[in-house]
Amino acid sequence: MTDYEALPDERNNHKVVVIPEDDAVFRLAQMLLLMDSLDRLSQSGTTLERLGCYDFLVANPMLVLIEEDDVDRKRLLMAGFDGRALSYASPAHRFTTRRERLQHDLALLVAYGLVQPTANKGILYLITDDGRALARRLSAVYAGSYRLSADILLRRLSKLSDKRLRDSMTTWTTVRYESPRPEALSLLDAIDLFESQFTTERPLRPAGAEGPKGQ
Question: Which Pfam families match (predicted)?
């Protein structure tokens, strides 16, 4: 009996899973839409730290809008956002990964002349006229939904101080036991939380120790 050998059609029939945020062009388009929304709110430039927070939360608004009776949450649900989507799993890890890519993405936008840095008590980033024109030519259904999310989230987040935004990011991206956001719980999160709770409630008995009689 010979070993099984895959036929050519079988070898070439692998499905490729594409994660949108792993695509540089997709991320650059999102950043342009975000910068354009900030421009519409008359923001005179935004720091790298705040851009990182805005970028992640506008793309994942259900991490912030957790109240079922929130009118803005219902508007975004109607626009196609869904907190139960797999993309909401392990938000802390995904935020860290996305933030690490931000400087590279901004450097590309600056090189293309779509965003410009300016100095004002630190480095701030602004969209240019060319960037604004390109952003407003994006007409996909997702672009409309993203703009709506940006309008809603930025009006809320822009009122927070840097420290409060930083603290809130920790809250919104951290999954805890009995979290009000079960949609953010991935399998690995669930395993970690289960092990943590089990260890807390039933500490391991030291080696060689004997339990009470009768056990």
Answer: MC2
CA distance 93 to 108: 24
CB 116 within 8 A of CB 125: yes
Q: Which pLDDT score, from 0 to 100, does residue 103 have?
A: 92
- CB atoms inside a 10 Å sphere around CB 53: 23
Q: How far apart are CA 109 and CA 158, in angstroms?
A: 23
Alpha carbon of 206 to those of 167, 196, 210, 211, 213: distances in Å? 38, 18, 9, 10, 17
Residues 6+ apart with CB under 8 A from 201: none
Q: What is the pLDDT of residue 213?
A: 52
């500490």: which residue's tokens? 203
CB burial of residue 67 (10 Å; 0-12, 13-18, 19+): exposed
Separation between Cα atoms, residue 45 and residue 152, nearest integer Å: 19
Q: Counting every residue, how long is the chain?
A: 215
State residue 84's pLDDT score: 67
Q: Are 48 and 123 in contact (CB under 8 A)?
A: yes
Low-confidence ranges of the chain (pLDDT < 70): 1-20, 83-89, 175-215
Distance CA 100, CA 93 (A): 11
Do residues 56 and 30 lie in contact, with contact meaning Cβ atoms separated by under 8 Å? no
Q: Which residues lie closer than 8 Å to 132 by C-beta, 6 or more apart?
A: 36, 39
